[in-house]
Amino acid sequence: MNVLFDNLPALLIAVPLFCAFLLPIIGRFLPQIRDAWIICASFAASLIAVITAFTVYTKGTIVYAFGAAAGSPAAPIDSGGIPFRIIFTIDGFGAFMLLSAAIVSFAVVLYLVSSQKERSGKSEFYALYLLLTAGIFGMVSTGDMFNFFVFLEINSLAGAALVSYHRRGGIAAEGALKYLIVNTVGGLMVLFSIGLLYAQYNSLNMAVIASQMTLSTLNIIALVLFITALAMKAGSVPFHFATPDAYSVAPSGITAVMIVASQAGLYGLFRILFTLYGDTFNTVTLGWIIIVLGVLSMVIGVTMAIPQKDVKRLLAYHAVSQTGYMLLGVGVALAVLGDPVAMASYGQTAMEGGLFHIINHAMYKGLLFLAVGAVIYRTGVWSLNKMGGLGHNMKWTMIFFLIGALAIAGIPPFNGFASKLMIYESVFAFNPALSIIAMVVSILTLASFMKVFHSMFMGPQLPEYAEVKEVPKLMIAGMVILTIFVIGFGLFPDLVVNNLVAPAGDALINKGAYITAVLGGGL
Amino acid sequence: MIANLPFIAVALLIGIALATILLKKNMIKMVMGLAMLEGAVNLFLVTLGYRENGIAPIFTNAPEGADMVLPTVQALTLTNIVIGVATTALMLVLVMVIYKKYGTVDADKMRRLKE
Amino acid sequence: MTIGLIAKTAGRLLVPFIFIFGFYIVVHGHLTPGGGFQGGAVIATGVALILVCYYYRECMEKFIPVTKFKLVESAGLLLFICTALAGLVVASGFLFNWLNATGGLFGNAVAYGINPGDLYTAGIIPILNFAIGIEVFGALSAVLMFMFAGLKEPTQEEEDAKAPVQNMHKGKIGGRK
To answer: Is A2 inside any structural domain?
Structure first.
């Protein structure tokens, strides 16, 4: 048992990979146990992720070197002090993202097992799903730049293959093709920057590059390429072209997991901005660039969402808008990074608000997509013009959709209110105009969701939906898991912020702590 | 000047590849532009490892007393080639599915998602 | 338009040599340039040669169906992950080189510096090369066969039915040559 606990970060990716590789053989020879196998595999992976996260919260940063006996440092004895092993470095921020990925991926598996029952090609579908889970877990845990790029590409390939799974007359292939082209160009830009950094510092380890980083022309070019490529992956304006197309044609459970994958792209962006570069440059300019990206995402996302008739495309534009909130909060924290007084008074709150919004967004947006997917599963239409009066038949789905809609609009006592309040307060102290824009966007979000709720669930019962029943129990179980977290995080925000979010914020702001944890205080 | 020639070639290739992706209407040509972009980044990575008068970084029957070029960037390039194979295969299969359902590979005609 | 008897025979003769060359690249991956992916891609080239010379339906009937290639791919992947996890069980490190310098299957010690290479060194690395080699071979062959399945190929009867008309236009006597 000690062997398992010492090697937890390796098991994070080994267990989903092993279960994914066994799935085609199980699907061919023993198809009866396929559903049970995927549920057990996803539960095991999520359990390992949660245990790893709590180990990090209680004992500090975990540094794990691959290919060495357990407990070895990243720098072997005979290498002259240069760390050359591939390492996983899980600090507070990584543990935070692991938690959100673990919860959403398990809830979605419960939903998918019952919504994919009559489809074909299930073995490869679940194998790709486990590969996507392994990719997300690896991307937020790694401490090596090239390993980050490899997991980024695994995410984009597995995501594009899953998006195009149900062909539906070709539109799924079109959405997946756009998603794949945008993500591949982004990945190649990241690789170009990694090459630039390797040529200067002769190391791929994040801590080694961070301890020697200066500000030269090549590093500025690398930084610009990183921001562009990772903002492309996270789906913020002006690179949001692939996000609504891909999210609207994918199966509904898959969209919920792809939101977590795009937030892993946000993880990469913040890790590079805060830990790799940190305060070697004038953070005010860069902070304002991130703030402008965030404000543009918020405004353009919500204004393009209002006239949409396809309900999943509308939800995808709202996802773009909510990404703007996260960029706004963390951008404010970046802008005041060099100023200790402002940092202590409102910068810390802004950072915690932005990070808290990441996990809240994964929960309530996942819940909304699952609820909308349940409606599409039973009725078969996805245009708002044709739906109506479904509240009579699908009571549970209506309640879950209502909870999700209130959470995204920022109404207490749900979790959206807690994180949005922190963002409003701190951004108001920084610059009042931005806070007012954020509140206006929140009101427009509420209006848009009231329209959707009214046209989907309210009104008289339409004759063609008279026999529509409630969805199967497993789908409701998946939605219940997400609802528990939406309500729980909303009722006890202090507990969550002090125990889960504050370590993540401290880990990002403290660049020196990260370097010391990996290099042992020497270099 | 002669040592900078590979970097100039990388810049030219990236320019041509980006122009192909953005300007061409045929989906197959867009996929080819993406393959060219990936080849340009691979060339950049391999060129970074070059050392003057170096030999291949292999110990089996190597000549004595010579510098070796960097092997790490060659491992990065190899991984990128593998990723590129998988990505190109997936993109070509998606283009085949689109051709079967839409009847065309013209990018202007693929507007069914915007309504 | 068939590809002709010469190409079919030459393809069938060349394929064993391509397979052997690819296998050589896979096995000697820790000594010379090459390794898992490169060797697997070369072996898949042999399958591509067969696919080009024969029609897809003939390939499926005479040679190997697609499901066998997918099983080969799964076998390669399972060998890789089991060898990596065996490092966890035997010596408490994921992907730890637990066969290095033990005198077992690939367990001779490696000499430092320039040496004529010894095939039986380097621990689990040749085993991982082999696993990746057969996985890449299975996966690339399956991809090629699925892509060829999407093409519209004329069957042999349609070819024979068209041929007399073609040769009549060209002025040949007596139908299909």
So the answer is: no
- Exposure string for A242-279, b = 16+ CB within 10 A, e = fewer: bbbbbbbbbbbbbbbbbbbbbbbbbbbbbbbbbbbbbe
> Which tens digit of pLDDT belongs to each residue from C103-140?
777 877 777 778 787 888 888 889 999 999 999 999 99
Number of domains in chain B: 1
For chain A, what is the total number of helices (H) and then of strands (E)? 22, 2
Closest CA to C124 of C143, C102, C141: C102
Q: What is the pLDDT of residues B64-112, one digit of tens each?
A: 878 888 889 999 999 999 999 999 999 999 999 888 888 888 888 776 6
- CA–CA separation, A51 vs A47, rounded Å? 6
> Which residues of C fall within a CB distance of 8 Å from B101?
none
**Nearest CB neighbour to B87, from listed A171, A184, A199:** A184
pLDDT at C177: 45
Residue A164: strand, helix, or coil:
coil
Q: Which chain B residues are Cβ-neighbours of A191 within 8 angstroms?
A: 41, 45, 76, 80
Instruction: Let me know if residue A150 belongs to a domain.
Output: no
Q: Which two tokens stand for residue C160?
A: 């024979």
Q: What share of chain A is helix, strand, coil (3-state, %, to 5)?
A: 80, 0, 20
Nearest CA in chain B to C114: B59
Query: What digits encode the pLDDT tens for the residues A316-334?
Result: 999 999 999 999 999 999 8
User: In 3-state terms, chain B is what percent helix, strand and coil (to 5)?
Assistant: 70, 5, 30
Per the CB < 8 A criterion, the answer to whether A145 and A54 are in contact is no
The SS3 call for residue A306 is coil
Residues in C whose CB is inside 8 Å of some CB of B read: 31-33, 37, 41, 113-117, 140, 143, 146-147, 150
Put simply, the answer to whether B44 touches A192 (Cβ < 8 Å) is yes
Q: Which residue of C has its CA nearest to A16?
A: C81
What integer is the mean pLDDT of A431-436? 90
A157, closest residue in chain B (CA to CA) = B87
List, for residues A256-269, the tens digit of each pLDDT value. 999 999 999 999 99
Please give the ipTM for the structure prediction: 0.95
Whether A306 is covered by a domain: the verdict is yes
pLDDT at A80 over 70: no
A408 to each of A308, A355, A363, B34, C6, how far by Cα in Å? 18, 16, 10, 38, 68
Fill in the DSSP letter of residue A274.
I
Range of the domain at A314: 282-491
Provide the sign of the torsion angle of the four alpha carbons A217, A222, A225, A226, taken in this order.
negative
Rounded to the nearest 5°, which phi and psi values hold at A522? -90, -60
Instruction: Please tell me which residue of chain B has the smallest CA distance to A195.
Output: B45
Please state the domain count of chain A.
1
From residue A93, give the alpha-carbon distance in Å to each of A145, A231, A502, A513. Answer: 17, 19, 9, 13
Task: Return the CATH number at B17.
Answer: 1.10.287.3510
The two three-digit tokens of residue A505, written as one number = 């914020």
- Interface contact flag, B45 A191, Cβ < 8 Å: yes
Whole-model pTM: value is 0.93
Considering the domain boundaries, does residue B33 fall inside one?
yes
Average pLDDT over residues A480-484: 92
Element (H, E) at A314: helix A311-335
Which residue range is the domain that position B79 belongs to?
A: 2-109
Looking at this protein, which amino acid is placed at residue B11?
Answer: A
Give a three-class secondary structure readout of A98-155: HHHHHHHHHHHHHHHHHHCCCCCCHHHHHHHHHHHHHHHHHHCCECEHHHHHHHHHHH
| A463 falls within a domain | yes
Rounded Cα–Cα distance for residues C115 and C111 (Å): 7
CA A368/CA A400 separation, integer angstroms: 8
What part of B 28-57 touches C (C-beta under 8 Å)?
Answer: 56
Answer whether residue B27 is part of any domain: yes
